[in-house]
Design a protein that fits this description.
mainly alpha; Pentacotripeptide-repeat region of PRORP domain-containing protein; repeat
């Protein structure tokens, strides 16, 4: 019951049940500590009061405190608790590694390497945390090294996606395309919606329109992944930035759901690149009608386009690498 109330976010009920328990064991103490963090009411005094009141503490108790600090992103207190632990197990080492990763402290922290060396390459959670953290901190080479050090059987879709996202965010489209191809050829993990969002974003920023079109059309036909709004947004941006504004607009109308304001704002931004005033006016009207809370922002972009048009126009689009029509059935 204590665990059930904790999962449902009912802190008052959790505390009532805990306070009225005739006998409290390690599980109940650990649950109350974790509950404070999960429900968002984790205060140092409350957590430490519960922790200090425990008649006996073991590695599970210390790990619960460590994970609680991790949940609220307090890396300093997590590290301090970790250093005070009389003994550690695989769970606590992995929890500390994940905490450093979530707090952005992994890339340059010596303790992270020490922890990973202890945990070992066989630990999937630790390996994925290292890949993601190094990538997020701009250490792509280290991220790649960890990925290739992982045994093939340990690579999950999260492992592949962590590196794909890193390539997309850091402008390494070619590496992203190669990694995506290797993922497909490997066959142990099927690309999911995150995989496709990453590869489309990478191709879009690098102007690899042909690759983007092939991956987008292959989502359904080859991998049976249904495109979401995010995937359509990526493709509208890819086509629009390449100057293929007619196709970008047609793609918006071909969405299997009602287009949102983001799609129209994306097209509007692309129209500004190529001074397509008429299409930009239509995109601004559609975006404004769909986003009442920010109805003025599309017209601000449109106003900037009018100004640029009066000044002679500015063309800042990317060059289409290889024109290929996008047909969505």
């Amino acid at each position: 019951m204590l665990h059930a109330y904790s999962q449902s976010g009912k802190l008052d009920d959790v505390k009532f049940v805990f306070d009225n328990m005739p006998v409290r064991n390690e599980v109940s103490w650990n649950t109350i500590i974790t509950a404070y963090a999960q429900i968002g009411h984790f205060q140092e005094t409350m957590a430490l009061a519960a922790f200090d009141a425990m008649p006996e503490r073991n590695v599970v108790s210390w790990t619960a405190l460590l994970q609680a600090y991790a949940m609220i992103g307090d890396v300093a207190l997590a590290i301090a608790s970790f250093q005070r632990m009389p003994q550690c197990n695989l769970v606590s080492w992995t929890a500390m590694l994940t905490t450093l990763a979530q707090g952005g402290r992994l890339g340059d922290a010596k303790e992270s390497k020490d922890i990973y060396d202890y945990v070992g390459r066989e630990n999937v959670v630790a390996g994925n945390a290292m890949i993601q953290a190094y990538a997020q901190n701009g250490h792509l080479e280290k991220s790649q090294t960890i990925f290739h050090m992982m045994p093939l059987k340990n690579r999950t879709v999260f492992s592949w996606n962590a590196l794909l996202v890193a390539y997309a965010q850091n402008g390494h489209a070619r590496n992203g395309v190669i990694l995506f191809r290797d993922m497909v050829l490997d066959g142990s993990c099927k690309p999911d919606d995150v995989s496709f969002a990453s590869i489309l974003s990478a191709c879009g920023h690098a102007g690899r329109v042909r690759d983007a079109v092939e991956h987008f059309t292959g989502m359904i036909s080859d991998h049976f992944v249904q495109p979401s709004c995010e995937h359509f947004h990526c493709m509208v941006s890819v086509l629009g930035r390449a100057g293929r504004l007619v196709e970008a607009e047609s793609l918006i109308y071909s969405m299997p759901f009602v287009p949102d304001s983001i799609a129209w704002k994306t097209l509007l931004s692309c129209c500004r690149m190529y001074n397509d005033v008429e299409r930009a006016e239509h995109a601004a009207e559609c975006a404004s009608a769909l986003d009442l809370h920010a109805s003025s922002s599309p017209f601000v972009l449109l106003g900037n386009l009018y100004t640029e048009e009066l000044l002679g126009g500015v063309h800042s689009g990317m060059i289409d690498d290889d024109h290929q029509s996008l047909i969505i059935e």
